[in-house]
Amino acid sequence: MTPTPNTTTPGFCRDCLAEQKGEARRCMACGSPRLVRHKELYDLTLAHIDCDAFYAAVEKRDNPELADKPVIIGGGKRGVVSTACYIARIHGVRSAMPMFKALEACPQAVVIRPDMDKYVKVGREVRTMMQELTPLVQPLSIDEAFLELGGTQRLHHDPPARTLAKFARRVEKEIGITVSVGLSYCKFLAKVASDLQKPRGFSVIGREEAVEFLAPRPVTTIWGVGKALAATLEADGVRTIGQLQTMEETDLMRRYGSIGQRLARLSRGIDDREVHLNDPAKSVSSETTFFDDISRYDELVPILRSLSEKVSWRLKKSGIAGNTVVLKMKTADFRSRTRNRKLEDPTQLADRIFRTGIELLQKETDGTKFRLIGIGVTDLCDPARADPPDLIDQQSTRRAAAETAMDKLREKFGKKTVETGYTFGSGKRDG
Ligand SMILES: [Mg+2]
User: Fold this and answer.
1) Which CATH number fits domain 38-208: 1.20.120.450, 3.30.1200.10, 3.30.70.270, 3.40.50.2300?
2) Can you name the CATH fold of 283-413?
């Protein structure tokens, strides 16, 4: 971002798109301060786009009364925060925080149960717009993706940077939510960049500044460096990326195994991973990380239930079924446990996924503390053969019928409920 003397740094206004000559702080055409300037602005082609506080933004869009209020999207008393809007974040609310803690921090928050149907729909609209920019869109989740825009200049009559700024404007205008854009020469730094100025950000990290930019940052900035590895590095006296930059790749690999190579390369801004189209889904799963570790079976069960419902819902929406249920857990000391069970018939039902999940869970709850639980299905197939009536277990058939009836009601009336922080937890059970 440092202007270079004697040459004009390319730049434009993100509001009116006017090209900027010189170094003025406001746009020469419209007076907006939202300018982007960078020496490599028109050479960089790899972007990471991330919607800002996505679920909360969608709810605020649909209910203008929420605009100035702290809004938390989350799963009830036992649940955790999925998304907090920026106002709630000022009060200290964070994603994955248990709801009761979030409401301690921000009792006036409006809590809204997630309406995944709606978010998926809006996420698809955003993705469709991305695909109009380039065919090379690699989604990372419902609301973020990498885009490779090299070679699109002729199509858009604009360099990627301007195409991206136009895109951000168009999303605001036509969809009514905001995005942040990171533009760089590699995935790692594009993703770091999109996070620098949120919300409504547009950040550029060029080749020339990469090493210097990264040096003072904590090692956790590097993709794949979680709490455990950060603690190991810290114990070895390594806190910043700059320290990694002084260490040899072979040395890092000897000390930390295969991740050592990543540490060496990413710390120096070397990342050759290309943007590619995702493979079609091989599994459908949902997982959650706890704010505080959980060991008790009876505390894990309701979480497993709601995760099973999410998985089931996604299967039903995508018109697929799964033959094998997978339970995934991560212990407090970061060991992963995966348990599978093949079903007699493929399923789409939350009830079957959940019941298989708790059978697997029972064997794992031996006092071990867990930090993460997830459930999913693999061996995906067409749902035609899924969930035949169970002639032996009539109860199961009845529950399946009840679930189908519930799905129909949800389709018809929607499943959104709004609760405020004050009424929350007043003996209401969360399903
Ligand atoms: Mg996001």
Assistant:
1) 3.30.70.270
2) Dna Ligase; domain 1 (3.30.1490)
User: pLDDT tens digit string along 275-316?
Assistant: 988 766 788 999 998 988 999 999 999 999 999 999 998 888
- Compute the distance from residue 83 Cα to the ligand 1 centre, in Å: 9
Task: Detail the residues annotated as belonging to a binding site for Mg(2+).
Answer: 50, 143
Q: What is the pLDDT of residues 200-257, one digit of tens each?
A: 999 999 999 999 999 999 999 998 788 888 999 999 999 999 999 999 999 999 998 8
CA of 53 to the centre of ligand 1 (A): 5
Contact by Cβ (8 Å): 75, 114: yes
Neighbours of 84 (CB within 10 A): 27
Q: Nearest to residue 208, comparing CAs of 189, 222, 230, 187?
A: 189
Sign of CA dihedral 265, 164, 179, 137: negative
CB 296 within 8 A of CB 368: no
What pLDDT is stored for residue 427 in this prediction? 30
pLDDT digits (tens, 9 = 90+) for 15-48: 999 999 888 999 999 999 999 999 999 999 999 9
Two structure tokens written together for 122: 């809006």
CATH topology of domain 212-267: DNA polymerase; domain 1 (1.10.150)
Please answer whether residues 72 and 93 qualify as being in contact, where contact means their C-beta atoms are separated by less than 8 angstroms.
yes
Domain ranges of the chain: 1-33, 38-208, 212-267, 283-413
Which residues have CB atoms below 5 A from the ion given as ligand 1? 50-51, 54, 143
Rounded to the nearest angstrom, the distance between the alpha carbon of 305 and the centre of ligand 1 is 25
CB burial of residue 275 (10 Å; 0-12, 13-18, 19+):
buried
What positions carry a catalytic annotation? 144
* pTM, full prediction: 0.67
Band (259; pLDDT cuts 50, 70, 90): confident
Write out pLDDT tens, residues 379-391.
888 777 788 777 6
Phi first, then psi: what are they for 124, rounded to 5°? Answer: -65, -40
